[in-house]
Amino acid sequence: FFSHFLRMPPAPGIWNTEGVANIIGWAGTIGSLALFGSPVPTFVKISKDRTTGDFAILPYAAGMLNTASWVSYSIVTPDRYQTAVTNGFGAAIMVLWLVLYTKYSPARGAALAKIAVVFLVWAAMTFLAVFVITDEWFTPLRHGESCKTEFVGICCIAFNILMYGSPLGAVKQVIKSRSVASMPLPLSLAALISSILWAAYATLLHDAWVGLPNYIGTFLGVIQIGIYSMYCRHRQAGEQRLVEDPSTSMQPSCSA
Asked: How far apart (Å, rounded) are the C-alpha atoms in residues 114 and 193?
């Protein structure tokens, strides 16, 4: 199915044209830029509190690995300037978030170790793609593509899914504390919108490399927003009980 999907031509019809796909692609680019900037409220809070609190480093580490890997994809794949520029900008922003996270993290050594792992994984993948893998290694799934492109493309799919699903790492803490304070809502919303746009783009052009991680990203994003809504309503119910009975303890408030 995967190889068949890759070889299919763009779907015909008034709404399924390359022109519409390009418009959605540019909207997806804007959505990606919004995704890269979505942690701003979270880091404003972290800066004010001067601690990362319950916020996890995983979403920002996964974002760094994902954007850097798409830059590598652009290096080994001709005519991918838009991908290179978008993700190059995204990687620079992710570096900023990781620097700020490390600065305010009470476990700075552990944060630096995770960042080092991200760098080593990306460096190893890029080294293999640029200097080791040749077109004799395997038969590409898509005619005309190189083994280098498909190797990095498969890695990018995995890292993309990791980035979209990374806010779910806070679910255990959310359920335990019955508070959404550790789940960054702007990041989850931006990831959902971005994945929907890129999923639509991939569907129009039958591009499985872009489509697969964004279909999964859309599914994971819906789960994240659902969990956030459920525990946010729980907090609101707690506030109402507190108004009616001040002796009732209130759950921590919803937080972006």
From this structure: 27
SS (H, E, C) 32-81: HHHHHHCCHHHHHHHHHHCCCCCCCCHHHHHHHHHHHHHHHHHHHCCCCH
Instruction: Report residue 142's pLDDT band, with 50, 70 and 90 as the boundaries.
Output: low
Cα of 139 vs its chain's centroid, Å: 29
pLDDT of residue 96: 96
Let me know if 245 is exposed, middle or buried by CB neighbors in 10 A (0-12, 13-18, 19+).
Answer: exposed
Cβ distance 98 to 116 under 8 Å? no
DSSP summary character for residue 141: S
Residue 122 reports pLDDT greater than 90: yes
Angle between helices 208-244 and 147-165 (to 10 degrees): 10
pLDDT above 90 as % of the chain:
30
C-alpha–C-alpha distance, residues 235 and 255, integer Å: 11
Amino acid at 134: T
Distance of CA 151 to the CA centre of its chain: 20
Given a cut of 60, whether residue 12 has pLDDT beyond it is no
